[in-house]
Amino acid sequence: MAEFEDFLPIMAQKLGERDFMAELCNGFRLLADPRLGLITLESLKRNSALLGLDSLTDSELRAMMQEGDLDGDGALNEHEFCVLMIRLSPSFMDEAYKWLNNALVNDLEEILNQK
Question: What is the pTM of this model?
């Protein structure tokens, strides 16, 4: 069965960068606690079915929150959510590794050609 994050590369390709980021922001707003403007564990539990995450256990949701909580405040802001969604997508990570590898190879070739 396909997971939500498996569709992210397809969404990005079909929507383009700007519209894709707008859709990620919409996903954030669906999951966020409207009073706090943050995704808390409670708001994630309450709203996870909206993004097809209702099969995740409490411990899996807690682990996802901890992985994405870059500033350690116990909640996800919009930036942390977007970074987490991209990190959870295997296709995006594979593509990022390819870009990084190509950039490093190109830099190395430039350095070697300068000598």
Answer: 0.62
